[in-house]
Amino acid sequence: MPACTTSPHVLAGVIARLNAPDYDRWAAQIRAAGGCRQPIHLRGKVEYHDRATGRLLHRYTTRHEPDGVLRLPCKTRRASRCPACAEIYRADTYHLIRAGLIGGKGVPESVTAHPTLFITLTAPSFGTVHSRCEKNGKVLPCHARRNAETCPHGRVMSCTVKHRPDDPHLGESLCPDCYDYTGSVLFNALAPLLWKRFADSLRRRLAKLGGLTLKDLREHLTLSFAKVAEYQRRGVVHFHAVIRLDGPGGPAASPPSWATTDVLTQVVQYAAKAVTATVPAYDDQPERVLRWGEQLDTRPITLDGDLTDQAVAGYIAKYATKAAECVGTLDRRISPLDNLDAYNLREHPKRLIAECLRLGAIGDLADLRLVNWAHMLGFRGHFSTRSRRYSTTLGELRAARENHARDHEITTGRLPLFEEDTVLVVSEWTYAGKGYSVGDQIIAAAITGTRVPGMAGDTR
Q1: Domain end (from 370, 392, 414)
Q2: Is 50 exceeded by the pLDDT of residue 3?
Q3: Are residues 192 and 317 in the same domain?
Q4: Is residue 403 a part of any domain in this protein?
Q5: Backbone phi and psi for residue 425, each to the nearest 5 degrees, phi listed first
Q6: Which residues 6+ apart lie within 8 Å of 425 measured at CB?
Q7: What is the CA radius of gyration of the chain?
Q8: Checking phi first, is residue 250 left (phi over 0); if not, alpha (psi -120 to 50) or beta?
Q9: Fewest CB within a 10 Å sphere: which of 93, 99, 119, 209?
Q10: Strands (E), 62-129
Q11: C-alpha–C-alpha distance, residues 377 and 333, integer Å
């Protein structure tokens, strides 16, 4: 059991649960939830009726379950909220991405011959921040500059420290008063629009190089992709994406002979420089044009070498379970009435959040909903997305897992075997809460081998 300091009330709860007559069933629910930190409680029933006669064949009700509820995993993707459920999401994303590279899950193996790139689209600079750089395995000074300039606020724009990977100064601006917090927030807010225009530009450029109209392109070529957003330590997002060229209809067909890896590389480089997003003028500020950063990484994916299908799938899947918490912000919505000083935030994310709240109060920027997304530093897009024909879907992967679990329930006798066409299923469910009491959480952690958040021994 995790080491922790508990009150007599908590210990009494632990003892009561362990001595409860339905403890074994409660423990079985906990194991079935897979170590979820915040399981969802449902109250209700499921009935199976014969379609022809209306006769009740089988009924399941939570009335006989411990506490009268069924506990199910929360299925969040965010590792900061539930590592166990996020690990399932990460594994599903890994298989989804890899299937689009080597085949499987309904994708033919011939997809390995299609031109495919792994690209990284970065954000522009909004000011100098503390960073960690290595060269030939040696850590370099952060910003060592001879005759470094002194900014208008009296700070010398230089840093000779060789930062550790866990140095809290990483990502902090050398001069917070010089840093363009407005630009950083607005870029995050418009990053999804930049991506959409980037993808549209790819298609238009491919059509032009193939001597086709955009409308006719779909009859010859399909652009497939899967992407994930990652927060840099300075608080701006950049996108990692797999981009693949298929024939008409998707991966089952080969692309035309002129659609090569070199052509795809050229098209990506063109589109990354061509697209922009404009922030309209507001108050006394002129309109602002935002674009991708100068750094653009485009590399072909191979079955062997440095950038394999496994490496790419693992990289994208890892970031699919993360969000802005790696920058040091909060993992929940922030109210304009919240006292940011009370949250012990680093100065840099605190200023970014404050800028979201300030800009969100401006009527001309209301469509960006910056107040709602202040905890995400302005970013309001989906973290992990894919085009329709890239590969399988998360829904299909989850359905396969649910079918497997259902087959197991039938095999073990917990569910009867019915002909689906002859059975009418009627279900009634209501939400009854989530999570654990402190005592239950301690026991659940011991059962699943996880750690109790906020108690001794918890490193998450």
Answers
A1: 392
A2: no
A3: yes
A4: no
A5: -105, 125
A6: 46, 47, 48, 49
A7: 26
A8: left
A9: 209
A10: 70-72, 116-121
A11: 11
103 and 196 housed in the same domain: yes
Distance of CA 331 to the CA centre of its chain: 13
- The amino acid at 79: A
Which of 196, 249, 195, 198 shows the shortest CA–CA distance to 222?
249
Helix (H) or strand (E) holding 96: helix 83-102
- The packing angle between helices 438-448 and 8-19, to 10°, is 60
Q: Write the pLDDT tens digit of every residue in 131-188.
A: 998 888 899 999 988 888 999 999 999 999 999 998 989 999 999 999 999 999 999 9
Domain membership of residue 247 as a residue range: 83-126+180-392
Residues 280 and 185 in one domain: yes
For residue 350, give the 3-state DSSP assignment. helix
Q: Which residue type is seen at 366?
A: A
298, 304, 305, 308 alpha-carbon torsion, rounded to 10°: 40
Q: Is the pLDDT of residue 451 over 80?
A: no
Last residue of a domain, which of 142, 176, 210?
176
Phi, psi dihedral angles at 436 (to 5 degrees): -130, 160
Q: H-helix or E-strand containing 433?
A: strand 423-434
Any bridge partners for residue 138, and if so which? Answer: 135
Residues 6+ apart with CB under 8 A from 304: none
Q: Give the contacts of 47 (CB within 8 A, at least 6 positions apart).
A: 56, 58, 59, 60, 425, 426, 427
Task: Find where tokens 């958040």 sit.
Answer: 453
Residues 6+ positions from 182 with CB-CB distance below 8 Å: 355, 359
Residue positions counted in the chain: 460
